[in-house]
Amino acid sequence: MTRDPLRDQLARALGDRYVLESELAGGGMSRVFVARETALDRRVVVKVLSPELSAGVNRERFRNEIQLAARLQHPHIVPLFAGGEVDGIPYYTMPFIEGASLAATIRRRGALPVREVQRLLTDVAEALAYAHAQGVVHRDIKPANILLQGSHALVTDFGVAKALSAAMPATVATATGMVVGTPAYMAPEQLAGDPGADHRMDLYALGLVAYEALTGTAPFAAPSPQETMAAQLTSMPDPPVSLRAEVPRLARVNPER
Predict the structure, then answer these.
(1) pLDDT of 44-89, one tens digit each?
(2) In whole angstroms, what is the distance from residue 192 CA to residue 253 CA?
(3) Starting from the edge strand earliest in sequence, which strands make up the sheet with 18-24, in order?
């Protein structure tokens, strides 16, 4: 059996508080584990940053942003439980949600009924409105970060992308090739690294999510992240067939037009 140093480090750091059960699909920025919290006998998700990324992260700024996000309490937001460090590598925990992500649902079912999309997007919009009123911006709204539980949608990873962006200097991001966010759902000002980018980037991303849920296809699908980013800045997605023209309005570079 191949050794997994990071998992071993995480298990040692968590001690008897959490028992790691399995690993979920992660990404370039983190690894994701399902664990059982022994004191409360409940399943949780433990996310640990990749060693490459965490090496350049300002620990105090990351911790402060995570603490800010942990204060969010809303029916459609998956809360953050706790955070810490594993041999200097930051991690955080959140509830384990039984249910598929919107991304997995679209892959399985394709385009979703309009009324279902309306209901799910209303849940997400309410979560965003609440968080924005608290001064918290998500920065990585995408189908994979929207979990479906029964007929409701819950937004997960709130504050994590913001924490990474705030804690990681631009020089580190360039050197590691890391992009904080997902290019296919990033607003033009976010792609440009505009420090003044605000809550409107979440609304832009929500428009792209709506488009994908209604059509079954991502609006800016390209072979590489670089081509995807270029498409975001220079093109408009085709309007959804048989739907009203204003449906993709939030996906415009200038939604006021």
Answers:
(1) 999 888 777 777 677 777 777 778 888 899 999 999 988 878 777 7
(2) 13
(3) 18-24, 30-37, 42-49, 89-95, 82-86
Structural domain including 240 reads: 102-251
CA angle centred on 105, ends 21 and 178, rounded to 5°? 65
Could you tell me if 131 and 195 lie in one domain?
yes
Asked whether the CA dihedral 90, 94, 96, 101 is positive or negative, the reply is negative
Q: What is the pLDDT of residue 110?
A: 92
Q: Mind listing the pLDDT tens digit for each residue in 183-195?
A: 889 888 888 877 7
* Residues 172 and 109 grouped into a single domain: yes
| Listed residues 95, 112, 147: the one ending a domain | 95
Give the alpha-carbon dihedral of 137, 60, 42, 20, to 10 degrees. 120
Indicate the DSSP class of residue 101: B
Between the alpha carbon of residue 104 and those of residues 27, 109, 165, 245, the distances in Å are 15, 9, 26, 27
Give the percent of the chain with pLDDT over 70. Answer: 82
pLDDT in tens, 113-161: 888 999 999 999 999 999 999 988 898 999 999 999 999 999 998 867 6
Instruction: Let me know if residue 256 belongs to a domain.
Output: no
Residue 110 CA to residue 217 CA, distance in Å, equals: 8
Last residue of a domain, one of 74, 95, 116: 95
Query: Which residues are catalytic, by number?
Result: 140
